[in-house]
């Protein structure tokens, strides 16, 4: 039943929003008005006049059934399609009906703009003439109750087309309409003594959240921490999903961005939990990217000396990296991630369909960590990335699910052998010695974490080549892959002295020696404590130009 029906008054944006949603989902888009026009060789307004309203509504119902012949389709219905009970029940039974609610004033303005642009009043016969707005108002009064029968109602008055379209996707995801039985569901388990951390990876799997919570024995009250950007799309759908399943969700929304990973915000969340009298068995759900995962994870680790933690990573970086392995923490003004704890999430729900709403730049930065895994641990993964660039850019469902699962396996395997960063786990910091310093130097502002790491990997590869550890050809392969994924490979004009100073403060410094993870070939890396300063300076000089 992978269909979305958009309903609403003329001027509610069904066609433009429908087109955008279909583009994001890579589904077909059908406008039933266009279908009818094509079939009868005249604009729908004229069909209405020539055949009369009862026949026209019948034609609309037929067009609806025809449009829904296939799955993976977004259908913009005619403004009056919901009048017929047959059409309403057909939509109810065959997909997700979304009512795009708009005030009559705004709908009227938009209709006027369309008429002005096309110059064809006849296309809107029900609302032409000087009393058009009044007639639109009475049409709305008559139809309102039917529009409101839709499973989802989204107001389109104020937000951008992009935001509304992504909200439609968020509702489709949480209502199970993106869940596809042909896609695999993978489970990867990290077992550290008595502690189990289970990741379930499934396209559209968010829909199963209540089931997972129930089967894991979590309490009814759950405490969700999210940020303003993720909350803007997912707050309402996820609260609805949990309410409908009998849970009592509470949600704390903080400003999006690295600045929230601070002592002050950590304390604010603790205050909220104390005020809510949160109990030891009640879980924290970290719903968001790496910032939320690290911060909410640290809250879970510290409140009542530890309460259950569920990670629902929503960015690519969080799905392949930060939500896995139990590193939680916050930043100190003098350094990144300086305060934190190792604390494993009992459950990690990884739904790659979240990535459909991720902004392009944030999506791209996630690839840096994936290239990192390929470069240090898995030559096959590296080759898969090299061979599928266009599908990666297109956010292909099965490829994403496969790659994300592989990255989770790789990370869990490393953490299994070295949870506390005593040795092997350090290799996951490939590109981070430089990357973290760049983020600190620029006040966590202009560089996204993955972007900084991408430049850091180039610096590390240059050092490895200069030390005779890596061939120039392999360094070039890494650079080309990162560039094809639209990740930066230089930061012109950066202050080298300050950068070196910041690198000296990094957590990875041991007895005053900077620790470098250097690749020795594609799929393999080693840890080095003896890299000379001139070598580092030379590599940094290269990425400054
Ligand atoms: N704990 C670890 O092991 C580990 C590993 C790597 C990185 N990290 C940390 O992760 C953080 C970076 O994570 P990030 O890149 O995810 O940044 P982020 O959490 O700031 O997310 C980036 C932006 O994308 C938005 N976003 C996330 N998911 C979205 C979605 N599905 N739809 C729309 N918008 C969405 C967020 O609201 C935010 O505005 C850094 O703080 C870094 O230190 C931690």
Question: How would you summarize what this structure contains?
Answer:
With 545 residues, the protein is of the alpha/beta class. It has 22 helices and 16 strands.
Keyword list:
single chain, 545 residues, alpha/beta, Rossmann fold, Dehydroquinate synthase-like, alpha domain, 3 domains, 7-stranded mixed beta sheet, 5-stranded parallel beta sheet, 22 helices, 50% helix, 17% strand, elongated, binds nicotinamide-adenine-dinucleotide
CATH C-level class of the largest domain: Alpha Beta
The small molecules bound here are: nicotinamide-adenine-dinucleotide
Count of alpha and pi helical runs: 22
**Oligomeric status of the shown chains?**
single chain
Note the overall shape. elongated
Largest sheet: 7 strands, mixed
What does this structure look like?
It is built from 22 helices and 16 strands. With 545 residues, it is α/β, with parallel strands linked by helices. A 7-stranded mixed β-sheet has the order 6-7-14-11-10-8-9, with helices on both faces. The chain has 3 domains: 3-174, P-loop containing nucleotide triphosphate hydrolases (Rossmann fold, 3-Layer(aba) Sandwich); 185-358, Rossmann fold (3-Layer(aba) Sandwich); 421-544, Up-down Bundle (Dehydroquinate synthase-like, alpha domain). β15 (516-521) and β16 (524-528) form a beta hairpin.
Q: Topology, please?
A:
Elements: E1 3-7, H1 14-25, E2 28-31, H2 32-40, H3 44-51, H4 53-67, E3 73-76, H5 85-94, E4 96-101, H6 104-118, H7 132-147, E5 152-155, H8 161-174, E6 185-192, E7 195-202, H9 209-215, E8 221-227, H10 228-244, E9 248-254, H11 263-275, E10 284-288, H12 290-302, E11 309-313, H13 316-322, E12 327-332, E13 335-342, E14 347-350, H14 360-376, H15 379-387, H16 389-393, H17 397-417, H18 432-441, H19 449-466, H20 472-484, H21 496-504, E15 516-521, E16 524-528, H22 533-544
Parallel strand pairs: 1-3, 1-4, 2-3, 4-5, 7-14, 8-9, 8-10, 10-11, 11-14
Antiparallel strand pairs: 6-7, 12-13, 15-16
The site of nicotinamide-adenine-dinucleotide has 31 residues, from helix 10, helix 12, helix 13, helix 14 and helix 19.
């Amino acid at each position: 039943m992978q269909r979305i029906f958009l309903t609403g008054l003329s001027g509610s944006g069904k066609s433009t929003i429908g087109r955008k949603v279909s583009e994001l989902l890579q589904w077909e888009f059908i406008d039933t008005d266009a279908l009818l026009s094509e079939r009868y060789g005249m604009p729908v307004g004229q069909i209405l006049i020539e055949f009369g309203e009862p026949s026209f509504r019948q034609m609309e119902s037929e067009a609806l059934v025809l449009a829904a012949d296939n799955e993976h389709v977004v259908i913009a219905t005619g403004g009056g399609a919901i009048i017929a009970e047959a059409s309403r029940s057909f939509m109810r039974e065959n997909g997700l009906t979304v009512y795009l609610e708009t005030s009559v004033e705004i709908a009227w303005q938009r209709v006027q703009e369309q008429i002005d642009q096309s110059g064809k009043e006849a296309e809107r016969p029900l609302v032409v003439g000087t009393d058009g707005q009044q007639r639109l108002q009475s049409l709305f009064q008559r139809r309102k109750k039917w529009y409101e029968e839709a499973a989802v109602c989204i107001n389109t008055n104020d937000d951008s087309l992009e935001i509304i379209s992504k909200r439609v996707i968020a509702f489709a995801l949480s209502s199970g309409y993106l869940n596809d039985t042909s896609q695999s569901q993978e489970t990867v388990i990290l077992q550290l003594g008595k502690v189990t951390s289970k990741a379930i990876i499934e396209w559209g799997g968010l829909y199963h959240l209540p089931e997972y919570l129930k089967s894991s024995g979590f309490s009814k009250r759950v405490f969700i921490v999210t940020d303003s950007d993720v909350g803007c799309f997912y707050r309402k759908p996820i609260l609805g999903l949990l309410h409908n399943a009998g849970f009592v969700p509470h949600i704390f929304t903080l400003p999006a961005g690295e600045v929230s990973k601070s002592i002050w915000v950590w304390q604010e969340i603790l205050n909220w939990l104390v005020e809510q009298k949160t109990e030891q068995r009640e879980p924290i759900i970290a719903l968001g990217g790496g910032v939320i995962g690290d911060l909410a994870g640290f809250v879970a680790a510290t409140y009542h000396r530890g309460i259950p933690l569920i990670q629902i990573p929503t960015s690519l970086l969080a799905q392949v990296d930060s939500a896995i392995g139990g590193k939680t923490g916050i930043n100190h003004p003098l350094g990144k991630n300086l305060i934190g704890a190792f604390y494993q999430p009992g459950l990690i729900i990884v739904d790659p369909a979240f990535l459909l709403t991720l902004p392009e730049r944030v999506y791209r930065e996630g690839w840096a960590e994936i290239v990192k895994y390929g470069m240090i641990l898995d030559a096959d993964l590296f080759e898969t990335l090299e061979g599928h660039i266009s599908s990666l850019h297109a956010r292909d469902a099965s490829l994403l699910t496969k790659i994300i699962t592989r990255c989770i396996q790789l990370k869990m395997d490393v953490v299994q052998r070295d949870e506390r960063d005593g040795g092997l786990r350090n290799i996951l910091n490939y590109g981070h010695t430089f990357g973290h310093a760049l983020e600190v130097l620029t006040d966590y502002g202009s560089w996204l974490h993955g972007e900084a790491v991408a430049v850091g990997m180039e610096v590390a590869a240059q050092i490895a080549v200069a030390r005779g550890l890596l061939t120039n050809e392999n360094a070039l392969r890494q650079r080309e892959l990162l560039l094809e994924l639209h990740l930066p490979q230089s930061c012109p004009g950066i202050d080298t002295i300050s950068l070196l100073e910041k690198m000296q403060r990094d957590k990875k410094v041991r007895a005053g020696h900077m620790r470098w993870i250097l690749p020795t070939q594609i799929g393999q890396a080693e840890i080095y404590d003896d890299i000379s300063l001139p070598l580092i300076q030379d590599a940094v000089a290269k990425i400054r130009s």
